[in-house]
Write a structure and sequence with these properties.
The chain is an alpha/beta fold and 97 residues long. It contains 2 helices and 7 strands. Helices cover 18% and strands 34% of the residues. The strands form 2 sheets. It has a 5-stranded mixed beta sheet with strand order 1-2-3-4-5, covered by helices on one side.
């Protein structure tokens, strides 16, 4: 699912093992990628500014750590509540709600 507003775009990945390389480039390069339990390995993240992972407990923290080591800003729910994503004036942020 692709969501676009005037300030940001988001790609919601329901299945991280799907082949996202077949999607148009502007969708693959969304500002925010929202995924469950894993990160789509074959997706181009050059323009992605934030990854939000909905995953329970340690799995979410492991993914968050892996992506952080790759230089990708990531936040995981890790069983600690919801994440509020904001896009405003060209900036994207995420806070635990």
């Amino acid at each position: 699912m692709h969501i676009k507003t005037s300030d940001m775009s988001a790609l919601v990945c329901f299945d991280a093992v799907s082949d996202y390389s077949v999607l148009p480039e502007n969708i693959r390069n969304a500002d925010v990628i929202i995924t469950r339990n894993d990160y789509p390995r074959n997706i181009d993240n050059n323009n992605c500014r934030l990854v939000v992972v909905n995953s329970e407990n340690s799995r979410g923290l492991i993914i968050q750590d892996e992506l952080s080591k790759l230089g990708i800003k990531c936040v995981a729910t890790a069983g600690c509540g919801d994440i509020l994503i904001r896009g405003e004036n060209g900036f994207v942020s995420a806070n635990r709600n």
